[in-house]
Write a structure and sequence with these properties.
Chain B: Keywords: Copper, Membrane, Metal-binding, Transmembrane, Transmembrane helix. Chain B: Its main location: other. The complex is a heterodimer of chains A (about 550) and B (about 150). Chain A is mainly α and about 550 residues long. Chain A is built from 18 helices and no strands. Chain A has 3 domains: about 200 residues, no CATH class; about 150 residues, no CATH class; about 170 residues, Cytochrome C Oxidase, Chain A (Up-down Bundle), CATH 1.20.210. Chain A is about 75% helix and about 0% strand. The termini of chain A are far apart. By secondary structure, chain B is of the alpha+beta class. Chain B has 2 domains: about 35 residues; about 110 residues, Immunoglobulin-like (Sandwich). Helix content of chain B is about 20%, strand content about 40%. The chains are: A mainly alpha (about 550), B alpha+beta (about 150).
Chain lengths: ~550, ~150
């Protein structure tokens, strides 16, 4: 009870003062970079989709794999990272009553480091010195500057992590005996996971720099690949955790409901943080050099992430149903009609949540041993992450824009802008269903991913994939239209929408709900458990890969 | 926690356990595990190392064949293999340069072939036809050209 009072008091102060202008600047800068990147990455996405389907030929000064590398880096790494930081820092500022000046400095340092890093890496891609795709598997060797750029990006991420940890600790010290507000708890989960996930790729990149410069002759390709997926798969789960923060805390407020039992929400965050990192191993299910029993262990570890996700599904349906019934929804399904489908702030994250049902199911296919063999490296996988990242995560991000940006820019969401948002959401949904749907089907028939247009000498099997690739091209066209509308909406809400005050929609607990247990705040313990899980998953295979390593590979350039 | 929540968590965990039992049975009892060979080789001396010094196809049993294959940007050696219908084919592969993927469209053959590692995978070709073999891991500018066929007569 005391806790809710304190929370209310805090919310009142924020309401009176409005958004903290210096904090808003941090978030708006990150969001601007995010949507600039989305525009460029989106255009590259369409170019790629049309080339892949044989509907367009690229000019001789650029090749498909350059476009693919840039598309992957810009959207999967830069767009999602910068959006996440902008959004999470806004949450933190709102939930904890403002960022500390020191923390803002960390955020700005991170911003500068990331911009430098991205410029370096992307320049190398444009110069065709780094057509290694965003996974940069050695022994494909990019220009050393590409890897140095990635180091800057990771340092920027670390700076933002440290900023969050400092602000969190500061608040906890000044509020003894209180649990942190939910949004701050989510931010802590996101950045703790991010910090430990980034260690894998940092080690990899630091070993690749001297190798690509010729100082070290060879590299261990297996270890590089493993360290990449330590980071790579955790990263997509970080985006997912960011999206769930909006599902649990923001969506209930928008639909006029209350959030779910806080203890369960916190448990889900803790489980996702602890269990996540070993999930990366399922990207290596058909690799040589890892025994079947180790792979089996990792199937289990990857699948265990499904448990907190199923808990989320339960909680969200409960929240939606309660809100719908409170508004007078009758019968078994009457509550569905009572939800605010015309409100883009609800519609976009709602479709995102629905998309996670096939997305999660597809993920289970990818994770499981022998089924992975059917779809590994086919277009199925591309379809899968366009449903999970492109729908579940990105549509949640889009939905967030329609209240977050007006809030930060001290403007209002107009009914016209809301209508445009609804149209954008529909276009995006149709585009994704067409594109990702046809990718799933083509993949089942064997169509490989990461391959430019080819019919393999008009082989009948390859020709049978072409119709699906056309549908993919149509989907990609709709998606670029969606990107353009979204970027327009963001610019409008940042600079041109009518001035006014927009509320930060944070939901409250149900009346009489028990307060969150204090033990959930024991981050030291969660980190120890995370490290134990990582040790269980990685020590044996990595030691094996190093001790029983073949002679290493020299840098190779095949483009 | 609410009673329904508890039931839901119990069912979720239960499904996970049943799933693991099924996957484990298929992997270890039925031998359907993914390709996971652990032998290694010097990736810079593939041509001088047995058996890859003589890549090719050889008959090792009653309608059973062994294919020793190297993958390099952007091709398979040997290519355009022919086997009789019903033949069991054991592929032994390694890469001479970067990471490649070995996939035969229309079958469950799918394996990563990496420099320094020897990968093995087997398949019985029951249905006659011309199967498309392709590289499914990006390996450079000519990646889309890296393919061959296996003809089953």
């Amino acid at each position: 009870m005391k806790q809710t009072q304190a929370l209310n008091l805090q919310q009142k102060t924020i309401k009176a003062l409005g958004v903290n202008t210096s904090d808003a600047k941090v978030s708006l800068s990150y969001l601007s970079v995010a949507f600039l990147t989305l525009l460029i990455g989106g255009i590259l996405g369409l170019v790629q989709g049309l080339e892949r389907a044989g509907l367009m030929e690229l000019p001789p000064w650029i090749n498909y794999y350059q476009v693919l590398t840039a598309h992957g880096i810009l959207l999967l790494l830069v767009f999602s990272t910068t959006f996440t930081i902008g959004y999470q820092y806004a949450n933190l500022s709102h939930a904890l009553g403002g960022l500390l000046p020191k923390v803002r400095k960390f955020a700005w340092t991170g911003f500068i480091l990331m911009v430098i890093g991205v410029v370096l890496a992307v320049t190398m891609v444009v110069l065709n010195e780094a057509s290694v795709l965003y996974t940069f598997y050695p022994p494909l060797a990019a220009h050393p500057v590409f890897y140095i750029g990635l180091v800057f990006v990771v340092l920027g991420i670390f700076a933002c992590c440290i900023g969050v940890f400092i602000n969190y600790r500061h608040w906890r010290k000044n509020h003894p005996g209180q649990t942190t507000p939910l949004l701050a708890f989510f931010a802590m989960g996101v950045f703790v996971l991010w910090f430990f996930a980034s260690i894998g790729v940092t080690v990899e990149v630091l070993t690749l720099i001297p190798w690509s410069m010729g100082i070290v002759e060879t590299t261990n390709v297996m270890v590089g690949r493993t360290l990449f997926w330590w980071f790579g798969h955790s990263l997509v789960n970080i985006w997912y955790l960011v999206a769930t923060s909006a599902w649990y805390v923001i969506v209930p407020k928008i639909i006029g409901g209350r959030h779910f039992n806080e203890k369960l929400i916190r448990l889900v965050v803790i489980l996702l943080v602890i269990l996540n990192i070993p999930g990366g191993f399922h990207h290596q299910i058909i690799d040589p050099g890892i025994s079947e029993s180790i792979k089996f262990l990792h199937v289990f570890m990857s699948l265990s992430i499904a448990v907190p996700s199923l808990m989320t599904a339960f909680a969200m349906f409960a929240v939606l149903e309660r809100a719908g019934r409170r508004k007078g929804g009758k019968g078994l399904l009457g509550w569905i009609g009572k939800l605010p489908w015309g409100d883009v702030r609800f519609l976009a994250p709602m479709i995102a949540m629905i998309a996670f049902i096939p997305g999660g199911a597809g993920g289970i296919v990818n994770t499981s041993n022998q089924m992975n063999q059917v779809i590994h490296n086919t277009l199925w996988v591309v379809g899968h992450f366009h449903v999970t990242v492109g729908m579940s995560v990105v549509m949640t991000f889009f939905g967030i824009c329609y209240w977050l940006i007006p809030y930060l820019a001290k403007r209002k969401l107009t009914p016209q802008m809301n209508r445009l948002g609804v149209i954008q959401t529909i276009i995006w949904t149709v585009g994704m269903i067409l594109m990702a749907g046809s990718q799933h089907l083509a993949g089942l028939l064997g169509d490989p991913r990461r391959t430019s247009y080819t019919t393999y000498g008009d082989h009948p099997t390859a020709l049978s994939w072409v119709p699906y690739e056309y549908v993919m091209g149509i989907g990609a066209t709709l998606l670029l239209l969606g990107v353009i509308i979204q970027v327009y909406a963001v610019i409008n809400m940042m600079f041109f929408a009518p001035k006014g005050k927009t509320a930060f929609p944070v939901s409250e607990p149900e009346d009489g709900a028990p307060s969150a247990p204090m033990w959930t705040e024991r981050w030291g313990l969660w980190v120890v458990l995370l490290l134990m899980v990582v040790a269980m998953a990685y020590v044996v295979p990595i030691v094996d890969m190093i001790v029983n390593a073949p002679p290493g590979s020299p840098p190779i350039r095949t483009w | 926690m609410h009673r329904l929540e508890e039931m839901w968590i119990a069912i979720s965990t239960g499904i996970l356990i049943i799933f693991m039992v099924v996957v484990g049975y298929q992997t270890f009892a039925l031998g359907m595990g993914p390709p996971s060979n652990k032998e290694t080789i010097d990736p810079q001396k593939v041509d001088q190392t047995e058996p890859f010094d003589e890549p090719g196809i050889s008959k090792i049993g009653d309608n059973e064949y062994e294919v020793v294959m190297t993958l390099q940007a952007f091709g398979f050696t040997p290519n355009n293999i022919e086997v009789p219908a019903g033949a069991k084919v054991n592929f032994i592969m390694t890469s001479k340069d970067v990471t490649h993927g070995f996939q035969i469209a229309g079958t469950n053959i799918n394996a990563m072939v990496m420099p320094g590692h020897i990968q093995k995978i087997s398949h019985t070709f029951d249905k006659p036809g011309e199967y498309l073999v392709l590289c499914n891991e990006y390996c450079g500018t000519g990646h889309q050209l890296m393919s061959t066929t296996i003809t089953v007569k």
